[in-house]
Amino acid sequence: MSTLDGKTAVVTGAGRGIGRAIATRLAEAGARVAIIDKDPETAKDAAAALNGHALVADLTDAAAVDEVTAELTETLGVPDVFVNNAGILRSGRLLDSPVADWDAQFAVNTRAAFLATRAAAVAMRDGGKGGAIVVLTSNCARTPRMDLGAYCASKAATDMMARCLALELAAHRVRVNSLCPGSCDTELQRAQWVALGIGPERQIQGDPTSFRTGIPWGRLATPQDVAETALFLASDAAGFVTGQSLHVDGGQTLT
Ligand SMILES: NC(=O)c1ccc[n+]([C@@H]2O[C@H](COP(=O)([O-])OP(=O)(O)OC[C@H]3O[C@@H](n4cnc5c(N)ncnc54)[C@H](O)[C@@H]3O)[C@@H](O)[C@H]2O)c1
């Protein structure tokens, strides 16, 4: 029997990148998986590849979150596993970047994370069968980074939200953990390299001039590294693990 046989799982932002790898891994472990993404094409493509369901929603829209949650409950029932993964990154220094960049990152990384995770949490609480929630934050939720101030702040708030939710949901046997990847080879990361005029080598080696730590393990994270940890946190193997922030970053932060 596979780890998640008979379970249902929902992964947001799973049209590509880390979310898609997580959705794929949960499906391989036996779960029926639904993908939510704002991009209809990638959502459909990813869902078709793992024989799952695709739902299209911009999760910054509270009404859309309610609609998609109702649709999910009708098609799949109350999920056993919910992974909040959708996120965006805009590079730039706090002193110089437009307020719009701060707002955009908080809208997706913090507010939408709250809306979507809370909707799932309410359904799981009311469903009464327990479950697991995994919230993708970042290793920079706890470690300051040059050129990523607003992103760091938006993820730090969400990391704390996950820990508070863990407290609220413990009595309902819903575990909540924050999964904190380090630099991971995805389109989000590649766009950052272009914006900063750097490449993967600089990220792996670190850059003392900008107080940027390197990666002792000597390579970037892969979406699969993150997906394996998401599966662990989603599964009964982590049955007594809640309220934690688990770093998957090859030692990049050592916090
Ligand atoms: N790649 C990294 O180095 C890295 C490191 C640490 C944390 N993370 C976090 O991991 C998560 C996944 O990152 P990724 O690198 O795979 O990103 P990505 O840009 O490759 O994929 C993000 C997905 O989220 C979807 N999305 C974005 N905004 C949305 C919205 N408002 N509503 C619905 N869907 C939305 C996008 O359409 C896309 O499919 C993010 O939360 C990111 O902040 C990434």
Identify the notable features of this structure and list them briefly:
binds nicotinamide-adenine-dinucleotide, alpha/beta, 255 residues, Rossmann fold, 8 helices, seven-stranded parallel beta sheet
Written description of the protein model:
The protein is an alpha/beta fold and 255 residues long. It has a single domain (8-184, 223-242), classed as NAD(P)-binding Rossmann-like Domain (Rossmann fold, 3-Layer(aba) Sandwich), CATH 3.40.50.720. The chain has 8 helices and 7 strands, in the order E-H-E-H-E-H-E-H-E-H-E-H-H-H-E. It has helices spanning 17-28, 40-49, 62-76, 99-127, 149-169, 187-196, 200-205, 223-234; strands spanning 8-12, 32-37, 53-56, 81-84, 131-136, 174-181, 245-248. A 7-stranded parallel β-sheet has the order 3-2-1-4-5-6-7, sandwiched between helices. Helix 1 (17-28) packs across helix 8 (223-234) and helix 4 (99-127) packs parallel to helix 5 (149-169). The structure holds nicotinamide-adenine-dinucleotide. Nicotinamide-adenine-dinucleotide (NAD) binds next to helix 1, helix 4 and helix 6.
